[in-house]
Design goal:
The protein is of the alpha/beta class. The protein has one domain: Chitinase A, domain 3. It has four helices and seven strands, in the order βααβββαβαββ. It has helices at residues 12-24, 30-42, 78-81, 97-102, and strands spanning 8-10, 43-45, 58-64, 70-75, 91-92, 110-114, 120-130. A five-stranded mixed β-sheet has the order 5-4-3-7-6. The chain has a two-stranded parallel ribbon with strand order 1-2. α3 (78-81) links the parallel β4 (70-75) and β5. It is elongated, with a radius of gyration of 16 Å.
Length: 132
């Protein structure tokens, strides 16, 4: 049985793209074939539960406490989501500073994180809904 942390969320179009790529890989592309097979094996496809939990596969809105501005984005693998041309929202990785700070939080939770420029930023999770 697979551990949930081994799962990689992706859209159905991303999974289809990976499967099509695998079918076209040649023998000299063994390393990529292994990588693609592993991604397919670990794939978690479809909508997440609408429970307000921030996790990959959710469209998240955060409010920056310093000025009240908001940012809405899909939390997921930027590399994988690029394979789905239908994704028309910014994508933040769960390993980015903001993504790591809010993953596992719920709507209404506040958190402080260090931005890439070294600034300490405080945000509040305003919304977390399944990406569809």
């Amino acid at each position: 049985m697979q551990n949930q942390t081994d799962r990689v969320w992706m859209t159905p179009a991303t999974l289809a793209s990976l499967e099509a790529e695998l079918a076209t890989l040649r023998d000299d592309d063994r390393a990529r074939a292994v990588e693609v097979r592993e991604l397919i094996r670990r794939a978690e496809v479809g909508a997440k539960p609408d429970d307000g939990l921030v996790e990959p596969g959710m469209t998240v809105t955060v409010r920056f406490d310093r000025d009240g501005s908001t940012e809405t984005f899909l939390l997921g693998s930027r590399d994988l989501v690029r394979q789905d041309a239908g994704v028309e929202v910014d994508v933040y990785s769960p390993t980015s500073p903001l993504g790591a700070a809010i993953t596992g939080r719920y709507v209404g939770d506040g958190v402080t994180f260090e931005a890439p420029n070294g600034a300490s930023l405080a945000v509040t999770v305003v919304a977390a809904v399944p990406y569809v």
